[in-house]
Design goal:
By secondary structure, this protein is an all-alpha fold. Helix content is 82%, strand content 0%. The chain contains 16 helices and no strands. Helix 8 crosses helix 14.
């Protein structure tokens, strides 16, 4: 345990964090597969499928934001398990649904449960003794498990019948129940502490920071939603080739989760994150605008790697500023909100102005959205330095 005084990142703690974050954000990450399932089952149009998807994504985002303050207090394991129970019931309802109305209601229930899981699990990241390492390990594990779910859910639907993928997600909720018992808990008095008392005060995020986070993930998720379509239209690559490129880029992007903390320690959190944001913006624009398959592939890999590096740095900085976890949970909720809005906004820009304008808008949006986050990284560096000096100061006065 270091100056932060958090829980050691043991294997059990890492598994609990990965299980919680994977399921909490599972609705958004596996949504393309879910959409394909219920659109086929009920013959929904694109707009109809979008409404059903929103009925799950929006409750997850709103509940995560609403429960961020509660997640800063003790009882995270209980809160996560309540969310898992609610999510499991919702997944069962979605699997058994026989009409779109029942499907929407089931998605509202499971989205609410996932929000509780996501708030508690992301807040727990701040309770570890090494925020950078915890964020990198959790994000890397989440990417790996999500990749398995993206393959497993459609396989279940194909082999066992439509809707079976939701049953698989129910089983995942059951499997996560014992795994999250090692989830690090919050401090007993997060809202009443003061300097010098050993207690911790929860940080209330600013509206500008939340809006910046929402915008960044709206841009990112929106671009990702249309990456395959634009890749096929602009480069002439086949559907399978583009899918392979995006899949490979997602796996290779794990390098970004590892490089992010290393770059922060070597070059400084502010400087390294500024570089990652700049490269991410340029790579995103190149991916949308290029007509060359090789450049498309390179841009996809750079974009995804830098995105994960930025995400790890963002979570680590928030954890350093606020060890109670409220800030991490709030930013996660804002990111989930942006994830739900992004595809709709990007689709509207693409239809109205075309890909050339979209590339410039997304690159500019990435830079603007990152400004509040860059400012937060400065505060995170200062908080880390202050906590590092605290033991020496206490020894001197003693």
């Amino acid at each position: 345990m270091n100056a932060r005084g958090g829980s050691a990142l043991t294997f059990g703690v890492a598994v609990a964090l990965i299980a919680g974050v994977t399921l909490g954000n599972g609705g958004a990450n596996v949504m393309p597969v879910f959409v394909d399932d219920f659109a086929t089952r009920f013959g929904l149009s694109d707009s109809g499928a979008g409404i059903v998807a929103a009925s799950q994504l929006m409750p997850t985002a709103v509940v995560t934001l609403l429960l961020a303050k509660r997640a800063a207090r003790p009882g995270r394991v209980r809160m996560t398990r309540l969310g898992l129970a609610l999510s499991g019931a919702g997944f069962l309802g979605a699997a058994a649904a026989t009409d779109p109305v029942t499907l929407v209601l089931a998605n509202l229930v499971l989205g609410t449960g996932l929000g509780a899981v996501y708030a508690a699990a992301t807040a727990a990241l701040a309770a570890t003794d090494d925020a950078d390492k915890a964020s990198a390990v959790t994000i890397s594990g989440t990417v790996g498990v999500t990749a398995l779910l993206i393959m497993g859910v459609p396989a279940a639907n194909h082999d066992l019948g439509e809707g079976s993928g939701f049953l698989l997600m129910t089983l995942c909720c059951l499997a996560a129940w014992p795994l999250i018992r090692r989830l690090p808990d919050g401090p007993s008095t997060p809202d009443t502490g003061s300097a010098g008392t050993g207690e911790t005060t929860a940080a209330k995020p600013s509206v500008v920071l939340l809006l910046g986070t929402a915008l960044l993930w709206a841009v990112t998720q929106g671009a990702w939603s249309y990456a395959s379509v634009l890749g096929r239209q602009h480069t002439g690559m086949s559907h399978s080739a583009v899918s392979a490129v995006l899949a490979i880029s997602s796996v290779v992007a794990l390098v970004g989760a590892v490089v992010g903390p290393v770059a922060a320690r070597r070059f400084g959190r502010m400087r390294s994150m500024a570089v990652f944001v700049t490269v991410q913006a340029l790579a995103m624009a190149a991916l949308i605008l290029t007509h060359d398959p090789v450049l498309f592939t390179v841009a996809a890999v750079l974009w995804q790697a830098c995105q994960l590096a930025v995400l790890v740095q963002m979570l680590a900085a928030a954890a350093l500023i606020d060890p109670t976890g409220r800030l991490v949970a709030s930013l996660s909720g804002a990111g989930a909100l942006g994830t739900g809005i992004g595809p709709l906004a990007v689709g509207a820009v693409l239809d109205a102005a075309g890909a050339d304008v979209l590339g410039l808008v997304l690159a500019l949006g990435t830079v603007i959205a990152s400004l509040p986050l860059l400012r937060m990284t400065v505060a995170g560096t200062q908080a880390s330095a202050e906590r590092g000096l605290a033991p020496s100061s206490a020894a001197a006065t003693g």
